Amino acid sequence: MGSTHTTQTSEDEANTQPLDDIxxxxxxxxxxxxxxGLARARELLEAAEIIEPNGPIPSxxxxxxxxxLCLDNISLYDDEGHGALARKLPKSSWSMIFSxxxxxxxxASGLRKFVxxxxxxxxxxxxxVKIDLNGAKLTIAAGEELEASARVDRYIELFTxxxxxxLAWTTNRSWLPISTRLSQKxxxxxxxxxxxxxxxxxxxxxxxxxxxxxxxxxTLPLGQRRSDRWAMNETVVFREILTGIAPIEMQENxxxxxxxxxxxxxxxxxxxxxxxxxxSIPTLxxxxxxxxxxxxxxxxxxxxxxxxxxxxxxxxLDDIASEMGFSDRRSLTRACHQWLGTTPSxxxxxxxxxDVSAN
Length: 359
Description:
The protein is an alpha+beta fold. The chain has helices at 29-36, 38-47, 63-77, 93-102, 107-117, 150-171, 230-243, 248-264, 270-277, 281-290, 295-311, 317-323, 329-340, 344-351; strands at 26-28, 60-62, 125-132, 135-142, 179-182, 201-204, 209-214. It folds into two domains: 86-243, no CATH class; 249-351, Homeodomain-like (Arc Repressor Mutant, subunit A, Orthogonal Bundle). 47% of the residues lie in helices and 10% in strands.
């Protein structure tokens, strides 16, 4: 079993710039040292010419460099577990599992097969999957054989990113999870290999990693690209996903657009929206606040836009009331007066071309 204690770099081992603004394309030096141990981290960094011999380890290291360090470490020590697991995993151990996964007909069955096969490697990792009408949740965590440590949690983050890259390969999709729960045992200031992928929400709670997949993706066919070519393309897929990492403000804008799209389809309560987006109501409220709005304001704006659009047509007012979710025309009139300061008929009279019938 690998070392299970956290090793921190000292001030003379690393530069000490603040990590608050680490950026989503980087992780801290703690991330790398936790995973490999200080001596091996230095060996790998020197071999990759990221640092000079006996030079300081930089405060931040790019995710692309971390990926390459992992590949170099596997080549040097023939261990896909990087010394963090219950036993050594010879090179291509995970590819053997992935090959079997890719032979399943769809993502749902592929996730089940993955959970079924992981114990064969006796790595100490524990995997579970829950699939229902709302989608799927895959959890990968340390089993009882592994003592909880930063090293194990770092490895789990790296491995799960690797697995998601493979799923992107076999489904021919850029990224599948719609949300990711990261371990709260790891400091957020150190960054995460998983954080920042475009269109995916991130939270920290508990230990291990949980991915959530949308129900509509569970029927995606696997094996769209040959698994025997995965090894020669894994870095290409990783880089493609890495270039899709979006700034936080872009992620919030994307989330806001999803909320707007749902509201434009018809009335939705906050609970409806939260369920559709696979988030809790508090998370929905928090993310809307970060985007500079809230549910009430956004819902009103969408409904006002929809009402003005419908009033610009020749649709009967009773039908508009029904389309807007009102019980009758009087309710429509009250809402119209509140939102637009006038009645539906008056709005049509002054805003619509004179040759279009009101109702």
